Amino acid sequence: FSRLTLEDTSRDELVEMGRTFNDMIALLESNYLKQEKFVSDASHELRTPLTVIESYASLLKRRGLTHPELFNESVEAIHSEAIRMKELTEQLLLLAKHHEQWDLSMKVVDLQELATASAKVFRNAYGREVTVNAQGEVRGFSDEAKLRQLLFIFLDNARKYSDEAITITLGASGQESHIVITDRGIGIPSGELPRVFDRFYRVDEARGRQGGGAGLGLSLAAEIAEAIGAKLSMESVEGAGTSVMIRIAAENRGRQ
Ligand code: ADP
What we know:
- The chain is of the alpha+beta class.
- The protein is 49% helix and 18% strand.
- The chain is built from 5 helices and 7 strands, in the order ααβαββαββαββ.
- The strands form 2 sheets. It has a 5-stranded mixed sheet with strand order 2-4-5-7-6, covered by helices on one side. Strands 1-3 form a two-stranded antiparallel ribbon.
- A hairpin with a 2-residue loop joins β4 and β5 (176-183).
- The model has no long low-confidence stretch (mean pLDDT 86).
- Residues 157-158, 160-161, 183, 185-188, 196, 201-203, 213-219, 242 line the site of adenosine-5'-diphosphate (ADP).
């Protein structure tokens, strides 16, 4: 993009117009570059599982019939990489569509029911113990499906980056309700904490890579939180564990 230069001696309106034009260009450039980076990062992430699928498929083609012992390992690898690609594509599709275009249905949600059902899913799917602590009934005003998705992102991270029990604590204070997800896992170094919500950011590429994350979970969480009006805060101690708090309105305070 080329910039418009106007002499300061020009008429005020022209100088003003020049400034507006340049601001607009700067905005366009930043969005353009961001988008370009997004596309190249996304392509890079999709290429990794595709390469694995391609090499196992070619191995099967060349030696599958003569070496039956290769069969299980190859099919297993192709299957798990395909699942990873599917999850990644779903995350990318959600992120590509700005949250203002999402269909939301805000209503009063029973948080205890939501937490208990989510804990059950995690127990069944991953064999991980998830304890729910709540004193009495806790309700929140939210889009139920998106809130569940938000909770799942944090539970999934708690599962990937810890080996011990995960806790969900529910509570309310004043007009606000909260959901806290706590793990006693590897934690996040304090200097990294502000960056973990960035797209494709991972604290350490080596650790937990087998979990298969692409560093998109938390950026999606931030997007969902903005859409449903939830506030997120994260505390972590390296080597001790991580705790995430989701705060939402206890009831509908806005206009219908
Ligand atoms: P990923 O798919 O890599 O898990 P996320 O966006 O969900 O991506 O998280 C970004 C990074 O933040 C992770 O790669 C991990 O290093 C760190 N992280 C997130 N949650 C936790 C947690 N509960 N414990 C330790 N590290 C975490």
